[in-house]
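Before we proceed, please read the two lines closing this message. Report back on whether the structure tokens fit the sequence:
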Amino acid sequence: MSAALLRRGLELLEPPGRAKAPPGLQRGLAGPRAAGAARRRKRAPESGRNKATVKGRVVKSAIEEYHKKKPVNHLRENLQYMLKGRLVADKAVAEQVLAQNRGRKSKDQPPEKTEKKKPEGTVFTEEDFRKFEREYFGVP
């Protein structure tokens, strides 16, 4: 991150009533390059605008941009809208919409519902079994 960007971020976070520090304390001007930097600053006359920006462009605050793009919860409005209609769709239509929004992979598909087989009842009665026993096994 560049020093100018860091400085601008710190300016955004400082309280509004606080005055800026004097120029000597603001930047550490100690070192061999300090004299050269001071000369360059004196030589370059600053016009009223920043030359690195496009003409007419305004520098935007990062905090304002964050608040603009902050997600908004629309749950309450959506619930009111949904409850206002009170029309219930057919089960077939609801299933069709859900099927369209489901993924096409096998992991997204609901498991196939298998019909449960009911245990088949016997055709023979108890009397028929007794008659069978008597005929084939000779039990009275």
